[in-house]
Amino acid sequence: MKQVTSVLIGAGLRGGYVYSRYALEHPNELKVVAVAEPDQIRREAFAFRHNIPKDMQFKSYEELLSRERMADCAMICTQDRMHAEPVIRAMEKGYHVLCEKPMSPEKDEILKMGEFSRKYNRILSVCHVLRYSPFFTSVKSLLEEGRIGQLMSIQHIEEVGYWHQAHSFVRGNWRNAKESSPMILQKCCHDMDILLWLSGSHCKTISSCGGLTYFKEQNAPSEAPGYCMDGCDHRDDCPFYAPKFYLEHPKAEEDGLIYAVTDMTDTDSILRALRRGPYGRCVFHCDNTVVDHQSVEIEFENEVTASFLMTAFTNRCARRIRLMGTKGELSGDMEAGTIELIDFVSNSLEVIQLHTSAKGHSGSDMSMMRDFVKMIGEGKPGKTDASMSVESHLMALAAEDARVNKVTVDFKEYV
């Protein structure tokens, strides 16, 4: 396979450290030749790691995309509301595109991105990384082998984790739907995509309920200050006390969450950043608007039904699923890498233990990058295409519309 070249637009956590890591680990397959990032420290640090010369470092995507095409593809990892324009302009320039999810919080922009992929015959691969996990790959294979007969129902839960909710969706970049996108789109478009993929059909109707119940002002403990480090009397019995999480919780380092707080990860730098930075705020005194729990009910055109639950109030950041069929039942835990199959005829139980990585969505991130690079370098078809990503994104937006307006949405009419 020839070496694929790429430009990176947005050198934050996902673009700067996760997806681009594939180029450092597999330099014969992928090379990043240019970067666009408005933050000078991040831009220069990324350029140093990837040996990118000064004249290929840009402050904005507009500046980069004003030049003649300089690579095979563009990885676009900006914030939620900043995907559509660089994606469309990159495809017009001749780039194939890897787009961080969600594509956009706007229905018209999602449809336009899919349309331009077809118009210019470009690969538009959205980072629905779960499809590439050993877990969901195995679930899909077992389903297609007929191991549980005809699929009838799916029950799926995403356990966000109390600490992940506090970091990303209360204090962090995705806390406010108007600034980013609704929780069901930002966090759960992965899950809508998995349900669509496993069902083997198209969405027919969708309904939803839930809301922001706990992480709001009226639930703040008595006299809790706006920032954790301003002498909070509840520090010893609060699971969301910021200094304890960012200095002691293993996930802060393992998942790279600490780099959202500060690029300098020594104790003094972390404490300085928490004193008045967004990640040091009391979780009950933030400007968050996204839900902390939500359930979705889906009917597909082939009469498969699915029930999905997203909740912040768990210890683990995990996904568990049950598939119920006419000849058997499958249940699994993605993070544990376990799948259990029950056969109704023999009444037998088969337990499958998968090897899964502890990082990167159980190994999905690197598997997705490998697939994307092969699509470009070898012309191989991928596990997903833009049309299915468009549908699963619109399912998430329809679910939010159903929740807010307390209605059941006819999906065809919605689209």
From TrEMBL:
Positions of the Gfo/Idh/MocA-like oxidoreductase C-terminal domain: 140-398
Domain (Gfo/Idh/MocA-like oxidoreductase N-terminal): residue spans on this chain: 7-127
UniProt-recorded Gene Ontology molecular function terms: nucleotide binding
Pfam families, A to Z: GFO_IDH_MocA, GFO_IDH_MocA_C
InterPro entries reported for this sequence: Gfo/Idh/MocA-like_OxRdtase_C, Gfo/Idh/MocA-like_OxRdtase_N, Gfo/Idh/MocA_Oxidoreductases, NAD(P)-bd_dom_sf
Similarity remark: Belongs to the Gfo/Idh/MocA family.
Name recorded for this polypeptide: Oxidoreductase
Signal peptide segment: none
